[in-house]
Amino acid sequence: MQRFRKYFLRYYDQVRCFDTLEPAFAVCGEFQLEDSSNERSCKSIEDVIEKFRIAFGVPKIRTCQAKKVTRKFDRNRTLQPKFNLEVCQSCGSYHDIGKICAVCYRKVHELTNLMKSKIMAYNPYIGERQSTNVKFEDDPRDGSGTETQDTSPRCMGRIVELGVPRPTWFKPKFVEPSVLGKK
Fold first, then answer.
1. pTM over 0.85
2. pLDDT at 97 over 80
């Protein structure tokens, strides 16, 4: 408010030096900048703000939320053609360039929810510092079974078996590259 008062008084001093008032001050006819005693003193800032709402562009009422939503989702505004569409290589549906399509995303979402439910299906207070590895149904198993492989840092984590075959788009983190070459 202090900053506004400073700017208003500066503007009032510029206006006061002329005999005629600007059109902005002529909008409200009930307010007089000068007292009847010709001293040219300004009334309180609150009175000026109250009587000059139209000159300062201050709204008298707040715009309701429903009107804002109507402006935001107006039918003339939302119906615009999209030109940056492409066809998905795997499922054939349309999607924006650089984004995954809704059908493929639904598959990813279902698999991730299955992973989350299997991972959280154990007591979270036991082994919470272990890393978790996901093993699919068709992942190749190591057949040697020696103790040196069990103590390796890769096998120290908890293994969660999902029981579904591995999708082609899911990168195999659990399987070593040498085992993938034998497949």
1. no
2. yes
pLDDT greater than 90 at residue 44: no
Cα 149 vs. chain centroid, distance in angstroms?
A: 45
**Closest alpha carbon to 21 in 10, 32, 30:** 32
Tokens 């030096």 sit at which residue? 17
pLDDT at 18 over 70: no
In the chain, what is the straight-line distance between the N-terminal and C-terminal CA atoms, in Å?
A: 75
Distance of CA 20 to the CA centre of its chain: 52
- pLDDT tier at 65, thresholds 50, 70, 90: very high
Report the b/e string of 55-73 with b at 16+ CB within 10 A: beeeeeeeeeeeeeeeeee
104 pLDDT more than 50: yes
**DSSP state for residue 29 in the 8-state scheme:** T
Question: What distance separates the 2 farthest-apart alpha carbons in the chain?
Answer: 107
User: Dihedral of the CA atoms 21, 24, 25, 28 (nearest 10)?
Assistant: 140
- Cβ–Cβ contacts within 10 Å for residue 138, how many? 9
At residue 90, the 3 state secondary structure works out as coil
